[in-house]
Write a structure and sequence with these properties.
The complex is a heterodimer of chains A (about 290) and B (about 240). With about 290 residues, chain A is mainly alpha-helical. Helices cover about 75% and strands about 5% of the residues of chain A. Chain B has about 240 residues and is α/β, with parallel strands linked by helices. The two termini of chain B are about 35 Å apart. The chains are: A mainly alpha (about 290), B alpha/beta (about 240).
């Protein structure tokens, strides 16, 4: 029983990261039709920015994490906005070139991070209470898992409220359904594009910071590995759906954890791909297709 | 008097197809001008080109004398152009109230007018637009355009697929709209055209083949048959 609880809470922690990456990816594709392959690089950029800024700030581990994490998120948002304005915007009607540019950018940013800080993982120093465990139904669960789950839950609630109760959220939800009609109501949808890209960058960077907490290190390959599963989450959850992404992220992470433990290590990834195939066969549009909510 | 809308030598290519081949016409200020023609002659494309929703290869469009040819769609709309698309294009996942709120441009949107014309929308404010009937969706689409003061309203086949009772209701709403603004109406239903339109422009194969007062055309069944391929007297 305690093993199942530990696996479940650890899976939810992993799912929290998948959700943060997938929600930004999903909104960007849903609204703008852009498959942003550079999204993984934003995870890496956010994680390294948080680590580096934390190192410069010094002080206690908690202060480093808090200040570094907050500024890492700002860096992620700023880099994403810059990517949208400079590289993606001129290519809105050219999807093939968009893919090439974002793939190239992902490679370039990854190489840049490695060039500056090397290929070796960098340890993230955490406050002691995060290493401590809390006993849940007999399982000793590391406290950092609750932090990851709590932050993702807060983001889910915040994003849902933002989409439901703000005018900007209304524009995004409508734009996901029918971009042309939004412009035909006199709304400059390009501004929405930049803000959604920046929001996606901030969420990716946050996922990068939390991945540092989860794995204890930041490393240049983390963004790519998280991105692959985030893409699967987006397809299962339905492009443009935050709720769908949340459900799919939890499902993917739990299946991965259970299969790796109860079947064999490595089977988790195969199980996730089988889940993806099953969803595509039964519901090709995903769990909640093409409506932002 | 300056025309509300002036179109000169407008060309539109969609893929390999030369859909609009240099159309020119004026929409006089006030009242309804109907844009008529057989299926596939370019009526919807004309409205979409005026909105900037399809690329224009050549030509000029002026709104109240001001050139708007190169403006982006949202800027054209902000200059005072309302649009009711052929397929209604309501946002299915949004409620009726959210659909209307999204369309707000003016500081004082005309909800009183909209709910006076379509009282049903007030009752269905919290209902998702995707669950409405076709007629109710058309009300939402027209209401969105009427919410703001516009110089010109572009309305594309508003009675298409509607039950006769709803056709009357929609025509009444457009008649009221025409008291407030200039309407360019694409419509296949000739009785509706007869009731609303002061002027007509007829397209054929991407070109303007007739323009003039509506009553002159509608009083001539042979002319109608030749231009539109329908019997004017049968409606």
């Amino acid at each position: 029983m305690s093993t199942l609880v530990l696996l479940t809470i650890t899976g939810l922690g992993l799912g929290a990261m998948y959700f943060l990456v997938a929600s930004g990816l999903s909104l960007i594709y849903g609204l703008m039709g852009v498959l942003n392959f550079a999204h993984g690089a934003l995870i890496t950029v956010g994680a390294y920015a948080a680590w580096w800024i934390g190192e410069q700030v010094g002080g206690g581990f908690g202060t480093r994490l808090l200040v570094g994490g907050a500024l890492g998120i700002v860096v992620g948002a700023a880099v994403a906005a810059l990517i949208e304005l400079v590289l993606v915007r001129p290519l809105y009607r050219r999807p093939v070139e968009q893919v090439l540019v974002t793939v190239g950018l992902a490679l370039a940013l990854g190489a840049l991070v490695q060039g500056i800080w090397g290929a070796d993982p960098k340890p993230i120093l955490l406050p002691d209470w995060m290493f401590d465990t809390t006993t849940v139904l007999g399982a000793n669960v590391p406290n950092d898992r609750f932090v990851e789950i709590g932050i993702a839950a807060a983001v889910l609630v915040g994003l849902t409220a933002f989409l439901r109760y703000t005018r900007f959220g209304l524009v995004i939800r409508a734009g996901v359904e029918n971009r042309a009609m939004v412009t035909a109501l006199g709304i400059d949808v390009r501004r929405a594009f930049t803000i959604v890209f920046a929001l996606g960058g901030a969420l990716a960077a946050l996922a990068g910071v939390l991945s540092g907490v989860y794995f204890g290190v930041v490393d240049p390959a983390r963004g790519t590995s998280l991105l692959i599963f985030a893409f699967i989450v987006v397809v299962i959850g339905g492009f443009g759906s935050i709720g769908g992404s949340a459900v799919a992220a939890v499902a993917v992470a739990l299946i991965q954890q259970y299969a790796n433990f109860y079947a064999s290590s490595g089977i988790g990834d195969l199980a996730v791909v089988m889940l993806l195939a099953a969803v595509l066969l039964v519901r090709p549009g995903g769990l909640a297709p093409k409506v932002a909510h | 008097m300056t025309a509300a809308l002036t179109v000169r030598d407008l060309h539109v290519h969609l893929g390999q197809s030369h859909v609009l081949q240099g159309i020119s016409f004026d929409v006089p200020t006030g009242g309804v001008t109907a844009l008529l023609g057989r299926n596939g002659v370019g009526k919807t494309t004309t409205l979409r080109a005026l909105m900037g929703l399809v690329p224009r290869s050549r030509g000029a469009i002026a709104l109240g004398g001001d050139d708007v040819t190169r403006l982006a769609t949202h800027t054209v709309v902000r200059r005072g152009v309302g649009y009711v698309p052929e397929d209604r294009d309501v946002f299915a996942g949004l409620t009726v109230e959210e659909n209307l709120r999204l369309a707000e441009r003016d500081t004082d949107p005309r909800y009183e007018l909209v709910y006076d014309l379509f009282p049903e929308l007030r009752q269905r404010a919290t209902q998702r637009a995707g669950t409405l009937s076709g007629g109710q969706q058309q009300m939402v689409a027209i209401a969105r355009a009427l919410l703001n003061e516009n110089q010109v309203l572009l309305v594309d086949e508003p009675t298409k697929g509607l039950a006769p009772l709803l056709v009357t209701e929609v025509a009444a709403a457009l008649s009221r709209a025409a008291e407030l603004t200039t309407v360019l109406l694409v419509e296949q239903n000739l009785p509706v055209v007869q009731r609303l339109a002061r002027d007509v422009v007829v397209l054929d194969a991407g070109q303007v083949v007739h323009a003039g007062p509506a009553n002159e055309l509608l009083a001539d069944p042979e002319h109608i048959q030749r231009l539109l391929g329908v019997h004017g007297g049968s409606h």
